[in-house]
Amino acid sequence: MIMKKPDTLPHVFTAWGDVLQSLSRAEKVLLGFDFDGTLSPIVERPELAFMEPEWGSLLNQLSSFQNLFVAILSGRSLDDLSKRINLDRVTLAGDHGLRIRLEDGTEYQPEHSETQAELRDIFGQIETFTRDIEGIHLEPKEFSLTIHYRSAPAGTSAILERALKKMLSGTSLRLQSGRMCWEINPDISWNKGDAFEWIRAQYIGDNPRRFELYVGDDRTDEDVFKKMQTRGFPILVISTEKTGATNANFRLDSQAEVGILLERLMEHISERSTKKSN
Fold first, then answer.
1. What is the pTM of this model?
2. Nearest partner of 68 among 203, 198, 235, judged by Cα
3. For the chain, is the Cβ count within 10 Å smaller at the N or the C terminus?
């Protein structure tokens, strides 16, 4: 796989002709999105995250078209994500895909070791360790735990990394870096990329006339981009907090541009639907 510098990626709107050409001949369409930093602006505390009502309306309209499927994948718990994405006909994947709910309400969980007891124990240790560190926010989830340090003093990330690695030694949990946070997940071979592939298999499979797009901004979205490098449109939302090479093939220059992308997709798909019905 070829990794690229984010600023060398072509802007997806400069390649819009290719997007429309692919969409025009597609029999089945899958639109995938990350939540925080993509559909929602980054905020100081995760409970303050929101999605613009207009964007929710666009996603709802898009998901109403025949053979078009919308999926939202997040590190948030599925229950928390569901409260923020209160839409019909949209597939949601929480905990980086450890719990997936299809548009018909069917749920899927990949097999993984029982880690909830370990998570509870680790949460207690981390809660004690971070009690006197200003600006730390702990986000416990069903199968994972996120330690946010966006509001903490400089140097906190390195302090946390050393302590967390020691705490996790000998457990069935793994430590991953995120956007101004550390994430603790089950140490299994499953991530957002695997979750997206599973969702893809349910809806569009390997239909030769398919269209797929995924938009994300964080390190965990790289797992999806990597799966899509030779197909579809993997799009990175540029951020000063996401550094290093990427597996994406296209870019958006800001989170606000995601709304423009939704509007453009809606415009073309609506026109295509009207033409087919005439």
1. 0.87
2. 203
3. C
Longest dimension (CA), the chain: 66
pLDDT tens, position by position, 20-48: 999 999 999 999 999 999 999 988 888 88
63 contacts 70 by C-beta, under 8 angstroms:
yes
- Buried b or exposed e, range 53-72, using 16+ CB within 10 angstroms: eebbebbbebbebeebbbbb
Domains in the chain, start-ordered, CATH in brackets? 6-110+190-277 (3.40.50.1000), 116-186 (3.30.70.1020)
Length of the chain counted residue by residue: 278
User: Which string of DSSP letters, residue by residue, matches 77-108?
Assistant: -HHHHHHH---TTEEEEEGGGTEEE-TTS-EE
* Residue 234 main-chain phi, psi, to 5 deg: -80, 120
Question: For residue 256, how far is the Cα from the chain centroid?
Answer: 16
Name, in order, each residue with C-beta under 8 angstroms of 155's C-beta and a sequence gap of 6 or more. Answer: none
Q: Give CA–CA dist 68/138, Å, rounded.
A: 36
